[in-house]
C-alpha cells in the first residue's frame, strides 16, 4: 500500500517538475480527453483524484506579472478541467490563487483572489456549476517554486485547481 | 499571564522622592535636555550604573542601557569608566566623577526586595547643572523587573527628549519557520526589545497581519483556520478568538480604529476587494469603497476622521486617503513606482508606506497630503511598516533573496529604523519573522 502511494507521488513530482513543458504540450494537444486512455498506464492513479487531474489534465494556469487575466494557454487547460469535472460530477474543488514574491503581502492576497475568481469564472462558463468550486487565495505565501528569479516567479503566478 | 502584566504593576509616579526644584534644565544649552525636533542629533551621553541594593539592580541597569542605546538617541557610558561606585552614587552623586567621564545625564537608584515584590526607586540627574530632573519609584512583582526597567527607560526618554518613549511596549508578529512552500506561521508576541517571546497559536493554521487593539489586550488578525481566510479577534487575556463579521468570502488586512470600537478591513469577492468598517462588538458592517479594483490595507488617521488605503483602481498600486465614512478618495502617492501598506503615524504628521520601484522595495514616509516623501531604507525585499507609539521609530520586515532554486538563503527578519532614516537595526527573534505590529504604551 505504502509502495503504491509512493509511486503515485513520485509520478506527480516528476510531472510538476517539468510543468512548463506540460503546459505547452497541453496548449497544442488535442483537448486531452482522448489521451486519458493512457491513464491506465499510470497504474496507481485513481480516476477523479488530484493525481489524475495533475497527470492527465493539468491542474494549474499561469499569469503574467500584475495580471489576473487567464492567458490563452490557460484557457485550454481550464476547458479540459471542465471536461474532466463533467466526467466526475461528485468532485468538488478549490480554485487557489497565488502571486509571486515581488508584491506586498496584503495586495497579493487580493490579487490571488482575483486570479482564482477569473479562473473559476472560466470553469463556470465551460459548464461547471459554481457550487462545486470554492476560491481561496494564498497570495505570495505558498510559492510552488522557491527561487528568487524570473523563472520561479512565472511558476508562482498561478491558479491551481485542487480536489477537496 | 497578560492580566498580571497589566494589573500587577503599581505605578508609583505620585508618591515620590520630590526634591526641591525638580529642575528641567530648560533653556540651558549645556544641560542634558535636547531638542528632538532636529532630524538627527548627537546621542546624549548617559551613565546608568547598577541600581544599588543588589538583586536585580544590575539587570535593570543593563536593560535601561540597551533601550537607550538602541534608540540611537543616547550613548550609555561604558561601565568600566565609572569612578564613583554605584552604591555611593545611589546615596549622593559626586557630579565631577560623572562629568569627567563624559556623562551629561546620570541615572541612580535602589532596588528593594519586599518579599516577592520589587520596589525600585530611581533618580535622573542632569550632571552639568548638578540637578535632579526626576525621582520616581515603581513597585511590581519581582518577575516583572523588566517592565520596571522599560518604564524607567520611558521616563528618562521623556524627560530628556521632551516626548513620550516607547520602551514599555510589545510587538506582535508572525513567526515563520519551515520551507516557503510549506511554511508554518504562528502568531507571536514579545517585548519591544525581543525578550519574553511567546507563541500565541500552534501553527496548525496559517496566520497573517496581526494588529494591536489600542488597549493592547486584543489583537485582530487574519487566519486560514479551516482553510477559510478570514479576520479574527484574539483576546490576549483569555486566549480565545472569534470570527469578525459575517462575510461569505475572504477578509484581510484588518486594523482597529483609534477608539478600538471598529475594525476596518478589506473584503475580497467577485474579483474585487473593497474596504469595510466592522463594529468589533456587534459585527455590524458598513461598506466604505465600491467599484472595480483591489482596495486593501486600510488604516485610520489617529483622530479617526480619515482612512488611508492601498488601491489599484487607477491601474497600479497607489495610496489613497478618504473620509472615515467612505467617499472623497484622493490619491496621494505620485512618486516613481508602486506604493503599498500605508500606516498613519500616531502623531498624525506622517504616513509610512512600502514602495516598489526599479525592482527594489523600500520603506518610506510622506505627509498625509503626499508631500515630503522620503525613503528611509531600501533593498531587495521589505514591507509592512508599523509605528512605535511615539511615532519616532518604525518597525518593518526585511527579506533576503533566495540564492538557490530550493529557496536557500531566503530569510525574513524584523527591523527598526528612526523616522529620520538612521539607526536601522535588526530585531532578534527566535525564527524568521514578518508582519510586525507595535503596541501602544502598556501602562
UniProtKB/TrEMBL annotation, chain A:
Gene label: pal
Subunit (UniProt): The Tol-Pal system is composed of five core proteins: the inner membrane proteins TolA, TolQ and TolR, the periplasmic protein TolB and the outer membrane protein Pal. They form a network linking the inner and outer membranes and the peptidoglycan layer.
Entry's localization field: Cell outer membrane
PROSITE patterns named among the record's database cross-references: OMPA_1, OMPA_2, PROKAR_LIPOPROTEIN
The family this protein is said to belong to: Belongs to the Pal lipoprotein family.
Membrane topology summary: Lipid-anchor
Gene3D superfamilies, per the entry: OmpA-like domain
Native source species: Roseomonas populi
Protein name: Peptidoglycan-associated lipoprotein
All copies of domain OmpA-like, residue ranges: 50-164
Alphabetized UniProt keyword annotations: Cell cycle, Cell division, Cell outer membrane, Lipoprotein, Membrane, Palmitate, Signal
CDD domains linked to this entry: OmpA_C-like (cd07185)
Automatic annotation (TrEMBL), chain B:
Pfam families, A to Z: PD40 (PF07676), TolB_N (PF04052)
Gene3D superfamilies linked: TolB, C-terminal domain, TolB, N-terminal domain
Domain TolB N-terminal: 33-133
Region forming the signal peptide: 1-25
Keyword annotations: Cell cycle, Cell division, Periplasm, Signal
Localisation: Periplasm
Stated family: Belongs to the TolB family.
Protein role: Part of the Tol-Pal system, which plays a role in outer membrane invagination during cell division and is important for maintaining outer membrane integrity.
Known partners and oligomeric status: The Tol-Pal system is composed of five core proteins: the inner membrane proteins TolA, TolQ and TolR, the periplasmic protein TolB and the outer membrane protein Pal. They form a network linking the inner and outer membranes and the peptidoglycan layer.
Name the record gives this protein: Tol-Pal system protein TolB
Organism: Roseomonas populi
Gene that produces this protein: tolB
